[in-house]
Specification:
Blueprint (H helix, E strand, L loop, with lengths): L1 E4 L5 H9 L16 H13 L4 E6 L2 E13 L12 E8 L8 H15 L4 E7 L3 H9 L3 E12 L2 E11 L6
Parallel strand pairs: 4-5
Antiparallel strand pairs: 1-2, 2-3, 3-4, 5-7, 6-7
Helix pairs in contact: 1-2
The structure holds coenzyme A.
Coenzyme A binds next to β4, α3, β5 and α4.
Length: 173
Amino acid sequence: MRVRDASVDDVPSITAIYNELISSRTVTWTDHEDSVDDRARWLARRQAAGFPVLVAVDATAETAVLGFASYGEFRDNQRWPGYRFTVELSIHVDEAQWGGGVGRALMTELLARARRAGVHVVVAAVDGENTESIEFHERMGFATVGRLAETGFKFGRWLDLVFMQIVLDEQSR
Ligand SMILES: CC(C)(COP(=O)(O)OP(=O)(O)OC[C@H]1O[C@@H](n2cnc3c(N)ncnc32)[C@H](O)[C@@H]1OP(=O)(O)O)[C@@H](O)C(=O)NCCC(=O)NCCS
């Protein structure tokens, strides 16, 4: 497996992996599946802003995307520049690959990129029912720092939002 920057050619796979769980799980709080065009615009916006969008690919079949990870602004940095050293991540691995180290490989590279970019804090906002993701983030060094009760609604029930974070450096600016 290899982790590299995403290209437009990866967008159909990224879209499929993102859409995979929308109808069955509360991982993302929407019933709306992204189109390939939506994801292409998202990739272009992220890359234009200088944020990483990474894919893990099968080393023998470079076009076979196993998962993707990215980060972007936590809040609106133009309006509230005090948030500019904080980012919020997203990570999704093809269900067929879970437990195989793809998430760890993506997260390791994403955090390395964040350190190099001078990011201080990375935030993960995780659905409270997604205990697998909470455990994954804990294994990757994140701490659970807050739980916003009943802030989401899907499949006829309230959902909690669990905030997790990792502090990447101790430097003052
Ligand atoms: C969460 C997710 C990214 C993990 O990716 P993955 O490729 O399965 O994770 P890995 O195999 O690399 O595992 C990395 C570590 O997390 C732990 N972990 C992964 N899945 C876990 C689970 N279901 N329960 C407990 N621990 C888990 C592993 O034990 C492993 O620890 P180790 O390397 O110290 O042994 C993946 O399950 C996923 O895409 N889930 C759906 C989307 C999602 O929830 N995204 C996050 C939204 S906030």
